[in-house]
Amino acid sequence: MRVLIADDHDLLRDTLVLFLQSHGDIETSTAADLAGACKLIETQERYDLVLLDLNMPGMNGLEGLKTALALKGGQRVALLSGSATREIVELALEAGAAGFVPKTLPAKSMINAVKFMAMGEQYAPIDFMTAVDETPTHPLAGKLTPRELQVLRGLTEGKSNKEIARDLQITEPTVKLHMKTLYRKVGAGNRTQAALIAREAGLF
């Protein structure tokens, strides 16, 4: 079985390779961006499955998925992500993705998912797809929209506006707009204050 793993995080990519190759019948190739993945798809022997990181360079949301799906008369391509929403996953599956693999999936489950998709099946974790959207119960969370909460989480993780925008598939100006409104709602004057308020309140 031949699998291509495309992800711009070296550590995660190397870890996935180790997971898969420890099950001797899986041969892996890697790329760090969409352009590299597409080049391998076009020049190498056909892959049984291509795993694409949703947020790596060149992806442009689901456009990268559609590009890879169309190469060489059609590919089996699955999304790999630590931040995809259920809505994005549903759109990816509708577009023809072989499945969705959360980066938090345990090693054994990930290997089983890869084999399942390589055999022609479509995969997405049932618990992810059927999870009930969380209703904020925290007093501070109750003041914010779901998107503002996501931006605030990014702030508490020390991410830049660019990183938050990439993770959430939105533009940097949109991130700044959400920050402006969430600052007002939580009573913060800047990103550091907002992150401190969220941490002190035990929001994340």
UniProtKB/TrEMBL annotation:
**Keyword Phosphoprotein annotated:** yes
What keywords are annotated for this sequence in UniProt?
Answer: DNA-binding, Phosphoprotein
Q: Name one Pfam family in it.
A: GerE
Record organism:
Puniceibacterium antarcticum
Q: Please list the residue ranges annotated as the HTH luxR-type domain.
A: 137-202
Locate the 4-aspartylphosphate modifications and list their residues.
D53
Q: Which GO terms describe its molecular function?
A: DNA binding
* SMART domains registered for this protein in UniProt: HTH_LUXR, REC
Q: Please list the GO biological process terms of this entry.
A: phosphorelay signal transduction system; regulation of DNA-templated transcription
Give the domain of life.
Answer: Bacteria
Task: Write the protein's name.
Answer: Chemotaxis protein CheY
Q: Does the keyword Phosphoprotein apply?
A: yes
Response regulatory domain segment(s): 2-118
